[in-house]
Amino acid sequence: MKRTKIGKVPDFEYRVRIDSMKGRDKVIKRIERIIRSSMEYRDLMFFLKENVDFDQCLFFSGVTNSNGNKSRIEIHHEPFTLYDLVDIVLCKWEETGRPLNELYIAEEIMELHYKNMVGLVPLSKTVHELVHSSYKQGTDKLFIPINLIYGNFKEFIEEYGDYIDDVIYTKYKDKIDKTKELTPDSFKALMKDFEYLDIEGVDKLNKIESDEEESDNLSVVA
């Protein structure tokens, strides 16, 4: 058997190269997936639900997954979404010239979570979807008041303020302004809205009985 001798193999370091906005978006979403699927993230979410009353919806206290209830409570990031947080930390790494490593960036963001520097709120699945759809559509259907957010996100702003771009910071300032101007209509999207039909020629709508109700109303002849 022939033996070939080679020199020392250099240490391999995983690095990410970003050459377009589309590529940047893909990197941010990969880091999001790393965070959400990590054991540290799952442990933190479990701790919050067990110890910080994150087992019930911020807006509907009756919607909870405690006491055997099966309501789904999800943790929402505010005033910065998880995507925003990754974008900001990624910007810090780029501007400080550090080689981009998705795992290390995800680790830094998880450390921010454990330092309580990330804003979080518990929401039912339906309300959570409503909040995100409002953001995507750029509407004011529903937003989270700043004073109801758990976590010292202001400390995050102080430490990472130089890396928050104008778009993200403007959204944050808008949320502060909306919080100051709260009215009952600010939560109109959460209210039940009934619509009554006024049909021409019909004065009264009769109740349509089900088959079961009809059988109950039949008289039995012996």
Spell out the blueprint of helices and strands.
Blueprint: H1 21-36, H2 39-51, E1 73-77, H3 82-95, H4 102-114, E2 120-124, H5 125-137, H6 153-160, H7 166-180, H8 211-217
Antiparallel strand pairs: 1-2
Helix pairs in contact: 1-3, 1-4, 3-4
Shape: elongated
Counting helices, strands and paired strands, the structural category is mainly alpha
Largest sheet: 2 strands, antiparallel
Low-confidence stretches: 213-222
Note the run of SSEs as H and E.
HHEHHEHHHH
Please state roughly what percent of the residues sit in beta strands, choosing from under 5%, 5-15%, 15-25%, 25-35%, 35-45% or over 45%: under 5%
User: Can you give the mean pLDDT?
Assistant: 82
Helix content: 40-55%
First-last Cα distance: 104 Å
Key features?
single chain; 222 residues; mainly alpha; 8 helices; 2 strands; disordered C terminus
